[in-house]
Amino acid sequence: KAMCGLPVAYAAAKSGAKVFERAPVQGYFYDAARQIYEIKVKMDGREAVFLARKLVNASGPWVDRVRECGGEKTEDLIVPVAGAHLELKQFLGTSVILQAEDERLFFVICHGGHCRVGTTERMHKDPDHLDATEEEIAYLLRQVSRYFPSMNFTKADVLGTDAGIRPLARQRKSKSAHEISREHEIKISPSGVIHVLGV
Fold this sequence. Notes:
Layout: H1 2-14, E1 25-31, E2 36-43, E3 46-52, E4 56-57, H2 63-69, E5 78-89, E6 96-99, E7 105-111, E8 114-118, E9 122-123, H3 134-147, E10 160-169, E11 185-188, E12 194-197
Parallel strand pairs: 4-12
Antiparallel strand pairs: 1-2, 2-3, 5-8, 5-9, 5-10, 6-7, 7-8, 11-12
């Protein structure tokens, strides 16, 4: 998950932005008189305050948590859908997209001598504590084994697993996880904070 944000951070720093790691937002508010945001973050165990003319909340699965610490959360803007992946020793010469028994799509991506297989879908609210479940591992092994039965995959073949959350924009009508749009959405709060939603 860190790799996805690194190019954005590098580009921002190259354009003059100050970039910080491990600096969780503690709170923010908009000073209408000065037309400026005051953002409090925790850095190296101490509180630091930054001022900004614009504030963009592009914190992925933490979007609603950040909104809450700014006193802006009335309802959730995202649906946190978790997905798990597993790594196998490379057994294909090319990456493929396949259809699972439940008609969902899944992929096998070949890279660096490994095959990355995924993904699954389930609701999970806490992005800080998330692992692939035994059920998800069994599901992915079963799906890949349907197409490559001669490989006889078992849990012993799994080199590693990981999981993450897709911060999907909440739809007006309730939908199952795989039906929710993967498109980005922008929501602007009454104080002008720009909230970026989506994968």
